[in-house]
Design goal:
- It contains 5 helices and 12 strands.
- With 246 residues, the chain is of the alpha+beta class.
- It folds into 2 domains: 75 residues, no CATH class; 129 residues, Alpha-Beta Plaits.
- Strand 2 and strand 3 form a beta hairpin.
- Helix 1 runs antiparallel to helix 4 and helix 2 crosses helix 3.
- The longest helix has 23 residues.
- It is globular.
- 27% of the residues are buried.
């Protein structure tokens, strides 16, 4: 058994991170007493699930912040691609070529790999936030087939951020789906364009009402959805809160 290490004590209170561009906030209560942390051990299955949830949250915030409301798919012709490293080299080259075709200006994107249910290897799902002609995508890819669509048909009054959240839910399926079964150490569940990470605003207060009032003031409106850990049966962590703005 590895001996526990104790974290330094700090004032108790609520600590929340607000992502203004993504229209989202989340955080928890921190206790003033030291918290025991053990190195190693744990439940591997639970760790994998938590890693997938964490990745899905990051994809959601990145999509919403950058208004990535167009979904695309890149597929290989022939026998497909079964080498995860080759896939990443091909996709990296695809986005470099696409950027050049669009005038050289960097743009936000996120992509996730998926293994085919048949023996055709992998294909790629991606999201962008601007119109890109299909012929440009085909030229930049060059390995097979492409598809791109704008996420429309949402309820009246929906915004590009709402559309981007739909894109994020779609991509999040593949962040979870079959990744661990064929995971290669060192490879990520998703990749994004650098330089477009959501802004973070740190908030703290003595009560959840206090920090949420600060978040609402910063956003200029009350959130349209709020979740607290009080609603979760069997919640094992510290008290937590999450909120979303339209």
């Amino acid at each position: 058994m590895v001996a526990p290490s104790l974290s330094a004590s700090s004032p108790a209170g609520w600590f929340v991170t607000l992502y203004p561009g993504a229209g989202e906030a989340g955080g928890s209560f921190r206790y003033s007493v030291p918290v025991q942390r053990y190195a190693g051990g744990g439940d591997p299955d639970r760790s994998r699930k938590e890693a997938a949830r964490r990745a899905a949250r990051m994809v959601r915030r990145y999509c919403a912040h950058n208004r990535l409301n167009r979904l695309g798919t890149l597929t290989y012709r022939g026998a497909g691609c079964h080498d995860p490293f080759q896939l990443r080299r091909d996709v990296a080259q695809f986005f470099r070529t696409l950027r050049d075709l669009l005038g050289g200006q960097a743009f936000a994107y996120v992509w996730v790999p998926e293994w085919h249910t048949t023996d055709h290897g992998q294909h790629v799902h991606f999201a962008v936030g601007r119109f890109i002609a299909r012929r440009s995508i085909e030229r930049a890819w060059g390995h097979g087939f492409v598809h791109i669509k704008l996420l429309g048909h949402l309820p009246s009054g929906s915004t590009p951020r709402d559309e981007a959240r739909v894109a994020a839910r779609y991509l999040s399926k593949y962040v979870h789906k079959a990744f661990d079964a064929r995971r290669v150490p060192g490879l990520h569940r998703y990749e994004v364009a650098q330089g477009f990470q959501p802004e973070r605003v740190r908030l703290s207060g003595r009560s959840v009402e206090d920090v949420m009032a600060q978040a609402a003031e910063a956003m200029g409106a009350e959130p349209v959805e709020v979740w607290t850990s009080d609603e979760a049966i069997g919640w094992e962590g510290p008290p937590a809160v999450w909120a979303m703005w339209s």
